[in-house]
Amino acid sequence: MQYSIGELSAAAGVTVRTLHHYDSTGLLSPGGRSPAGYRRYGDADLARLRQILFYRELGFPLEEIAAILHEPDTEVLDHLRARRRRLSEQIERLAHLVEMTDRAIDVQRTGVRLTAEERSEVFGEISFDLSYATESDLRRRDTEGHRTAMARAAAHTKDDWRVLMRESAAWRRDLIAAHDDGCPVDSEQAMDVAEEHRRHTARWFTPCPPAMHVRIADDFVRDPRAFALVVPPSQQRPGLAAYLRDAIRANADRADADPDTPSGSTP
């Protein structure tokens, strides 16, 4: 079958200008000419064009495509493997950029007025506020607790964040020690660690009665992003999120059983 340049353009979904360019570079020249001198393409040309478009979709430059089409299959495999490696590297880089963008969005959402350098200096691995109540989740953005947390986070100064993060680091050390030492979740040590997190949340962000604290703790297990706000991945270990959740539940039960215990008092 013979195709005019317009027919080939429509069949392959490319512009006539693209076909002119491929012809000028020698990548795809017409198999013949009409008596009037117009380009005429055959089925072999269409097949070659589809090969070109396949490699273009994979991101190969035209010069490399030209080389591929003139090399044996073993060389094509080498090109494809090399391209796969480059694509994998690009995927990793893009995933990192997406993560950075998400983190920047979350920072702006909190209203924290710090420069990028200050955020890195103050927050370290935990890029935003330590309390999950401040970051919250889109399901809660219209709740009073979320609005309070956002307003208070936005009002914190750099010095406030420094103090907050020091407190958080000390609390994490206590949590990890209780977990690694095998303290039962309903032991005084574990429940006191849970209570300190509840008080920290109330002190810096939003009132956090035990029932609300339990809901926050459930998110620590359900959503790794939530737990990463309180314990960065480099400090996590298997079972730590569930350990904290269970300690928080035990602390809430302690408050229900005895309102005079610390978890039942006002921070």
From TrEMBL:
CDD domains in the cross-refs: HTH_TipAL-Mta (cd01106)
Keywords: Activator, DNA-binding, Transcription, Transcription regulation
PROSITE patterns: HTH_MERR_1, HTH_MERR_2
Presence of the UniProt keyword rRNA-binding in the record: no
Protein known as: MerR family transcriptional regulator
UniProt KW Hydrolase keyword: no
InterPro entries per the UniProt record, alphabetical: DNA-bd_dom_put_sf (IPR009061), MerR-type_HTH_dom (IPR000551), MerR_fam (IPR047057), TipA-like_antibiotic-bd (IPR036244), TipAS_dom (IPR012925)
Pfam family membership, one: MerR_1
The HTH merR-type domain, residue ranges: 1-71
Organism: Streptomyces beihaiensis
